[in-house]
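Supplementary Note 3. Input sequence used for the single-chain structure prediction.
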Amino acid sequence: MAVAAELRASGAEVSFLGTRERIEAELVPAAGYELDYIKVRGIDRGNPLRAAGAAIEAVAAVRTARQALRRRRADVVLGGGGFVAGPVGLASVIGRIPFVLTEADSHLGLANRLLASRARRVCLAFPIAGRDSERYVVTGRPVPAAVLDADRTAARKRFGIEPDARCLLVMGGSQGALSINTAAIEALAEQPGRDFDVVHVAGRRDFDQLESRLAAAAYRDRYTLLAYEPDLGDCLATCDLVLGRSGGSIFELTATGRPAILVPYPHAAGGHQGTNAAWMATAGAAVVLPDEELSAERIAIEVSKVLADEDRLQKMSTASAALALPDAARRIADAVLEAALERGASERDRRSP
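The predicted structure, written as discrete structure tokens, is reproduced below.
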């Protein structure tokens, strides 16, 4: 979406391909973009029957994607690296439409591994060993403009947080993280001793359960529980420290210079959340708390230690900001426009006598 905004600002027409079951079905139309649908799902490698079904769907999705690309008269395709990108990338190859890939994690996902050799450019969030030819470029991961533009004073007013108060942001992935959600409620709302505000983005899946638990908690004052925030701009602007997973959202943390206590999801593909967390921790911007060590007690201890140490908090914040690549969306948009121009030039050459 951040890249789409940059492309639109450059005069390009932008539309999306996605599924009806995932978040793009809500966010893309709300942002004013047209969205074509394909039927595809991730491949469950632990279940051969489901994997076979997903593969059959993917083959059918290639045809649907080709139809959409022809109807849109697409000059170039940008792949986001998820399971939608596989069929759409193959449709691009068949239709001889140039495509650019983006990889948000510290390793190439399955779709990107299959398609990388045919892409005009592969835009990486992190340097990846062995992926250093001219085809690969490290751009960082785009973040929404709302994250970069959010105002701390306005955000704190929204959440009712005093200007000089400390604030912790708790968040998992887009669906939330049950282990973090429950441990945070126990540590920060059901036990005494907290002297800072909390903004907790729980995810819609766990929200009702957590809302009931918070309503009954003895120490629920200065605790804001949210189901979902589309861009996290206000949440990041208002906080001083983040407790959460270490997926692609770590780039929102670095873009805003936020230090973090990161709990990598242990079952993430290729262990990429552990690598992401190590990237921030090595720079001095994060503390890594393994999921198997997560508990209410550990959260209370680790959060209090960081928030109580002004010098440490400032050094972590500075280290986080030093990792930022705030122009990632523009750099990826430039790669997309360059691929489109290359296609136009090659077509003119073929038509020349």
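Residues 146-322 form a domain with the Rossmann fold fold (CATH 3.40.50.2000). The mean pLDDT is 91.
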